[in-house]
Amino acid sequence: MLRLIILLATFALTTSVQAQSSKRPIPAKQHFGFAAAGSPHQPEAVGFYTRGCLAGGTALPVNGPAWQAMRLSRNRNWGHPEMVKFLKKFAMDTQKFGWPGLLIGDISQPRGGPMLSGHQSHQMGLDADIWYMPMPKRRLTWDERENTSAIPLAGSRSVTVTNNWKPGYVKLLRLAAQNPKVQRILTHPAVKKKLCLSETGNKRWLSKIRPVYGHNYHFHVRLFCPEGSTGCRAQKPTPKDHGCGAPLDYWLKLFTNPPKPTKPSKPRKPRPVRTIDWLPTACKTVLKADRPELLAASVAPKTGLQVRPRRNPRRR
Ligand SMILES: [Zn+2]
Fold first, then answer.
1. Is residue 18 part of a domain?
2. Which tens digits make up the pLDDT trace of 101-137?
3. How close is the Cα of 105 to the center of ligand 1, in Å?
4. 119 Cα: distance to centroid of ligand 1 (angstroms)
5. 103 Cα: distance to centroid of ligand 1 (angstroms)
6. DSSP readout, the chain?
7. How many angstroms does the Cα of residue 280 sit away from the middle of ligand 1?
8. How many domains does the chain have?
9. Which domain range does residue 179 map to?
């Protein structure tokens, strides 16, 4: 009899352990990657550029008088209304000095958050990629927007720009960097070098141009936390110096004389799954606002920042 009891108890324990292990945590990017539209809240950037979400996001129209959005299947033409406003005005202003207009790449997903592919940042609707390729005169088809390759301004580890460089790029980046809403602009070191050499006037704006890996096909504009986004964490300001000296040399040296790769002493541990709990609590509200089925009951919101309901839910 005792044997039977022990056998039954062991069986019950094994089944419960198996049931537990089959409950795999769902990565937050899966929730956010499939949200089709903005949340019905007042606009608010929540968290940080690399760890946050977007309440009340607005879509940048895919066509405008001075811009066209690219890679439409990704549905990443959503941003904080401040970003959408900035992009529209910036695009129009570039035409004042003869630039043909902008091709706009990824901004954010409708509710921001981590993405299923690419990008560490772009999570709060305050980051936008702008292609270096000028907008063509005609309207591109859906297929062209999916398949056209961007033109690079430099090779990925090159320290000089290619023949695709045009003097208009100085005006383009200067205009963006001088906008007080712009926190920083990320671009390839060769582009920064060319800008430093080309600017004969005041170099102050160049402090916002930050060299980084990649970014040879596009530049990345990041806005400051907008007013009213109390849950948005500011990024450290860029140094006051224009960065054309030692900070740029550091990057150029990195490309001409890259350090030899070192073997890690221990195999790297796999990164834990970043579930919705990894994000600020308010992101749960943003995500599940009108689609509670997106979230399991196990992740009910805790206390924390409250996202305010949108006054006019139809206004996107
Ligand atoms: Zn970007």
1. no
2. 999 999 999 999 999 988 899 999 999 999 999 999 9
3. 8
4. 6
5. 13
6. -HHHHHHHHHHHHHHHHHHHHH-PPPPHHHHHHT--S--SB--EEEEETTEEEEES-EEPPSEETTEEE--GGG---EE-HHHHHHHHHHHHHHHHTT---EEE---B-TT----SSS-SS--SS-EEEEESSPPPSSPPPHHHHHHPPPPPSS-TT-SS--TT--THHHHHHHHHHTSTTEEEEEE-HHHHHHHHHH--S--GGGGGEEE-SS-SSEEEEEEPPPTT-TTBPPPPPPPSS---SHHHHHHHHHHHSPPPPPPPSSPPPPPPP--GGGS-THHHHHHHTT-GGGS-GGG---SSPPPPBPSSTT--
7. 22
8. 1
9. 27-258+280-293
